[in-house]
Amino acid sequence: MEKPIAIQHNTIKHETVQTVNARELHAFLEVNSNFRDWIKNRIKEYNFQENQDFIIFAKILAKSLRGRPSMEYHLTLDMAKELSMLERNEKSKEARQYFIECERHVKQVVTPQIDYSSSQAMIGFLNYLQGQINQKDTIIEDLKPKAMALESLQRHNGLFGLTEAAKILEMQPKQFILFLQQKGWVYRRTFGALNMRMMP
């Protein structure tokens, strides 16, 4: 392509995607109609969806009359390819091939190929996998006591004494009772027994 159209990165639906400025595409394709009519008609005619196929930014141009903002459309590469095909000219074929090449380049960057014939590459890959396994094992070890505590709570249907609750929470009973008193969830009567305060 003699004059490549700038590829930008924008976020659509929480995902970073490659986009093209619709004005630049319009100019490159040498479309006869004015930009505003062209983009609005294409969006309506082919049912393109905002925040799926394109996004819009308001941009105030210095030379614009009365400072009125112009609408900048940023198209996904899929929409840009489709619009290019609709023009049916040499420029449209050129643009479509360019967008396909851009997508191909991104896929190669995202999914690097491993050279399985290289022992160093295999060792590196196996070390990476072992690291992933170790990380998961650490997470499992951290979650195991919590899972056991939840299972114990389920077995008792929520009915257990303060001493047993302290054991489940891996606390000393005196520390646990003191904690509950500080929070105002239990209180001690003058003759020594603990009473629970009902929480709303």
Automatic annotation (TrEMBL):
InterPro entries: Ant_C, AntA/B_antirep
Source species, domain of life: Bacteria
Sections of the chain in a coiled coil: none
Residue ranges occupied by any AntA/AntB antirepressor domain in the UniProt entry: 20-89
UniProt domain Antirepressor protein C-terminal: residue ranges: 140-189
Matches recorded under PANTHER family: ANTA_ANTB ANTIREPRESSOR DOMAIN-CONTAINING PROTEIN, DNA-BINDING PROTEIN-RELATED-RELATED
Designated name of the protein: Phage anti-repressor protein
Taxonomy of the source species: Bacteria, Pseudomonadati, Pseudomonadota, Alphaproteobacteria, Hyphomicrobiales
